[in-house]
Design brief:
The protein has twelve helices and 14 strands. By secondary structure, it is an alpha/beta fold. The chain folds into two domains: 135 residues, 3-Layer(aba) Sandwich (D-Maltodextrin-Binding Protein, domain 2), CATH 3.40.190.10; 106 residues, D-Maltodextrin-Binding Protein, domain 2, CATH 3.40.190. The strands form four sheets. The chain has a five-stranded mixed beta sheet with strand order 2-1-3-13-4, sandwiched between helices. It has a five-stranded mixed beta sheet with strand order 10-7-11-6-12. The protein has a two-stranded antiparallel sheet with strand order 5-14. Helix 5 crosses helix 6. The longest helix is centred in the N-terminal third of the chain and has 38 residues. InterPro entries: Lipoprotein_NlpA. Keywords: Lipoprotein, Membrane, Palmitate, Signal. It comes from Lactobacillus delbrueckii subsp. bulgaricus (strain ATCC 11842 / DSM 20081 / BCRC 10696 / JCM 1002 / NBRC 13953 / NCIMB 11778 / NCTC 12712 / WDCM 00102 / Lb 14). Its main location: membrane.
């Protein structure tokens, strides 16, 4: 009888111990989940064209969760609107501008509107496209060439035209804000039409040639490596065209925002981007200081 009671007490003690251990681990799990939830930071990223899809993919990735980031992606139809939204806090980080584009924007703004680059992301070669001609040499005298009507991309386009041997620019040409007035040689008397660069693919048939950045080209089903007559090469002279993640100057030390750069360059993320866009978004994983050296 005593042995039976002893056995019953042992069973009861074991059950009690199991209950206590289970309760302990349940408490730890709940605490862990609450801690993880409290450590998750929500970041709103603004982008345009195909890059919206890139960031939507990143937002859903396991890599984002591991870094404690909940990413919301907001799509825009034009670049200036994205930077204005970054300045006024409607979004936290912009993911579309080249370094030159960001610099040109900063020059046009007061101290309160300044933005800073958080990380480099990629370079998308700008290309010269035509639906009428198959070679640059086929462009006739007096041909109309369309360029972006924003300072950074107008200057970038002119440098590309010079690289292609179509024009010559003055020696001290400003790569961030130079314009058609800086052309010193135009032997074929090309005419230049300034356009909203987001309309490039749509107006390709109404001009002799048009310069289009790759983000916009992809949105128009154009591949810069296959469809352009000529495109930028990846070298030191094009580093101003490297795209960056940017935020308002007051947020330059925000640790969560800086994680976006690390996330973008994750190997699995890069593998997806390369496959999705046929290698036209060339990864540039450099410190921001590289842009100013």
């Amino acid at each position: 009888m005593r042995r039976k009671k002893k056995h019953q007490r042992l069973i009861a003690a074991t059950i009690a111990l199991i209950v206590i251990i289970a309760a302990f681990f349940a408490l730890r799990l709940t605490s862990s989940r609450q801690t993880a939830k409290s450590q998750t930071t929500t970041v709103t990223v603004g982008s345009i064209g195909p890059d919206v899809q890139v960031w939507q993919h990143i937002a859903k990735s396991s890599q984002a969760k591991k870094l404690g980031l909940k990413i919301k992606v907001k799509a825009f139809t034009d670049g200036p609107s994205i930077l204005r939204a970054t300045s006024d806090g409607s979004i936290n980080v912009s993911a579309f501008a080249s370094w030159a584009y960001l610099e040109a924007y900063n020059k046009s703004k007061s101290n309160t509107g300044q933005q800073v680059a958080l990380a480099t992301t990629y370079l998308e070669p700008m290309g010269i496209y035509s639906s009428k001609y198959k070679k640059l040499s086929d462009l006739p005298k007096g041909a109309t060439i369309a360029l972006a009507n924003n300072a950074a991309n107008e200057a970038r386009g002119l440098l590309l035209l010079q690289s292609a041997g179509l024009i010559k620019l003055k020696k001290n040409f400003d790569s961030a804000s130079g314009n058609t007035n800086d052309i010193v040689s135009n032997t074929k008397k090309f005419k230049f039409k300034l356009i909203d660069d987001t309309t490039g693919p749509r107006i390709i048939k109404s001009v002799d040639a048009v310069l289009i950045g790759n983000t916009i080209a992809l949105a128009g089903n154009l591949n810069v490596l296959k469809d352009s007559l000529y495109h930028e090469k990846i070298n030191q002279s094009t580093k101003n065209n490297i795209n960056v993640l940017a935020t308002a100057k007051k947020n330059k030390n925000n640790a969560a925002y800086k994680k976006l750069g690390k996330l973008y360059h994750n190997k699995q993320i890069q593998k997806w981007i390369a496959k999705k866009y046929s290698g036209t978004k060339v990864e540039v994983n450099k410190p921001v200081s590289y842009l100013t050296d």
